[in-house]
Write a structure and sequence with these properties.
Length: 163
């Protein structure tokens, strides 16, 4: 520690020590930032998949419990889905989180189209066999399927697409 002209010792941090500490902190932040951003994007995709699964479950439950025919319309181009009852008293809209989009709907159509897809949930009937794939810009994908036997939704991570 430096000694002043009066003979007492000064307490504190030198400028060099402060700059070394800041350099270490900056290095740690620089290394951890990309993985933190990727983790946040994965959380958004997972939250979007849970939203889609809940939306499908609402359609199945409403058709069964309230004995109403429910139509689910999926707009891939607009990145949204809508539930409507046949009598017009019920309507619900699903919007995905920012950065997450619907990339495909199954079963696929014979010819690719941007037209909305319609699925009908009938009381006492078998739920439609359907799936919606969501993805983010980094290519992380989730597939939300509706099991036609049980009526339960399942979230899966699809295999990577061949390049």
């Amino acid at each position: 520690m430096p000694i002043s002209s009066t003979g007492s010792r000064r307490r504190g941090v030198t400028l060099i020590e402060l700059m070394v500490a800041l350099a270490i902190i900056t290095l740690i932040i620089g290394i951890s930032f990309p993985s933190t951003i990727a983790g946040m994007e994965n959380l958004r995709v997972s939250a979007g998949a849970r939203s889609v699964a809940t939306f499908m479950s609402v359609a199945v439950n409403r058709a069964e419990r309230l004995q109403q025919a429910i139509e689910m319309t999926v707009f891939i181009k607009d990145n949204r889905a809508i539930l409507r009852s046949a009598d017009g008293r019920f309507a619900q809209r699903l919007d995905l989180p920012p950065g997450v989009s619907m990339s495909a709907v199954w079963p696929p159509l014979p010819e690719p189209s941007d037209e909305p897809r319609h699925f009908l949930f009938l009381p006492g009937g078998t739920p439609p066999r359907m799936a919606i794939q969501i993805a983010n810009k980094r290519g992380t994908r989730r597939l939300v399927r509706l099991n036609p036997i049980t009526g339960a939704t399942e979230i899966a991570t699809p295999a990577p697409e061949p390049e």
